[in-house]
Amino acid sequence: MKLELTHTNSFVNKEKIQSYESQVASTYNTIYNRTGAGNDFLGWVNLPSEIDESLVSDIEKTASELRKKSEIFVVIGIGGSYLGARAVIEALQNHFAPLTDAKPLVVYAGHNMSEDYLRELIAILDKKDYSMAVISKSGTTTEPAIAFRILKQHIINKYGEKEAASRIIAITDKAKGALKQLANVKGYKTYIVPDDVGGRFSVLTPVGLLPIAMAGIDIRQLIQGAIEIEKLCKSNPTLNGNFVSEYAVVRHILYGMGKTNEIMVNYEPRLVYFSEWWKQLYGESHGKNGKGIFPASVTFSTDLHSMGQYIQDGIRNLFETVISVENSDHELRIPMESEDLDQLNYIAGKRISEVNHKAELGTMLAHEDGGVPNIRIVIPEISAYVLGQLIYFFEMGCALSGYMLEVNPFDQPGVEAYKKNMFALLGKKGFEAQTEALNKRLGK
Ligand code: PA5
């Protein structure tokens, strides 16, 4: 299996990249010697190779038991507590999974506060056998807490206390947080989110592994893929011959040239949630102190008919990172028609993927002409192993980029601002002064 990285030399030349050689080496030192900001959140660095075999087996066993009695598996979590699992599951399941007989179907809750969403989910759960994982590292996040309170009552009403408890898995901190206390009292099976792994870096902990195993995906392959890139970085913590470093350096140079928006591009709709995971990883890690590349995403060729115009011709502060997939899982050719009324016979006999690849190449050239540099990450196929490679590639790329930007890539202080206002507006105890200030501002 291989990952390949290429980029447009017309925007970033080799000499410029090479000038970062010593900075890259010292940034790896900062990471491996744990001397940088946020160094108590570097648990993800060795996670793939050091994951406990007994933990992996335990997750597989739990998943196998729950799969037998679940038509639906609900993953309750938000941000890093659901995006990694969703990225992998959606990348590997059938595009039309809800319309197939595949069981269990993994669905998500606690990532929004939509009353309609939860009400409609409950209406489905009324008629299906289900189980759930409630995932929150802090154990106190409002969105999943609300969803869990509601779904917990539903599952107890449906199965009774004892059976309900056997259908609930809590994934949280080893000691702190309301969820941990609740799980202890109710006797739920619990998995721990390691202290030194932040939410958005937690996909290779039980946070991601349990839901992914519930979807019937080989978590060992995912871990193996990540190990390959972990080893590559450890054995060659430099710029030369290490595409993770090259990715971090190229995006850093582009940022310095005013390319402040990175668009993750895919040509496979099954990668939409991979982009969502990447957006959180990079956005939450780098967007601080008035700095950071804004991560966005598109799915082509769909969005060539919507966002394509802007990318080609709008403000020139963009660059693209394209995930290019070499091989499809299935084969489908465009048929020949004797009448050729739709004038498609010039591509008759070709596979759809061939046409998709030509669209990709044509778009890359057009966007380069339009002043949009392109980084390409070529993957042979979308598999658990390759997704594991990509996960570690982007995690290490994120840490390197963050330190090069001189921010702490592992905190997220800005996330608290909306929470404080929401708590004040809801009248939560301890927020009285803020409630008064906000009411004044709102003219109340
Ligand atoms: O990366 C992060 O730390 C965040 O996105 C969290 O994952 C998210 O806020 C959910 O937090 P928690 O798992 O504590 O409920």
Overall tally of structural domains: 2
- CATH class of the largest domain reads Alpha Beta
Number of helices: 18
Strand percentage lies at 5-15%
Helix content: 40-55%
What is the strand arrangement across the widest sheet?
Answer: 1-10-9-7-8
Cα shape: globular
Order of helices and strands: EHHHHEHEHEHHEHEHHHEHEHEHEHHH
> Any idea of the CATH topology of the largest domain?
Rossmann fold
How many β-strand stretches? 10
What name goes with the CATH superfamily of the largest domain?
Glucose-6-phosphate isomerase like protein, domain 1
Radius of gyration using CA atoms only: 23 Å
Question: Top keywords for this entry?
Answer:
Rossmann fold; 5-stranded mixed beta sheet; 444 residues; binds 5-phosphoarabinonic acid; 2 domains; alpha/beta; 5-stranded parallel beta sheet; 18 helices
Topology (SSEs and partners):
Blueprint: E1 4-7, H1 14-18, H2 21-32, H3 47-50, H4 53-68, E2 72-76, H5 83-92, E3 105-109, H6 115-125, E4 130-136, H7 142-159, H8 161-166, E5 168-172, H9 178-186, E6 189-192, H10 206-214, H11 219-235, H12 243-256, E7 261-266, H13 272-286, E8 294-299, H14 308-313, E9 318-325, H15 352-369, E10 374-379, H16 384-404, H17 416-425, H18 432-441
Parallel strand pairs: 2-3, 2-4, 4-5, 5-6, 7-8, 7-9, 9-10
Antiparallel strand pairs: 1-10
The structure holds 5-phosphoarabinonic acid.
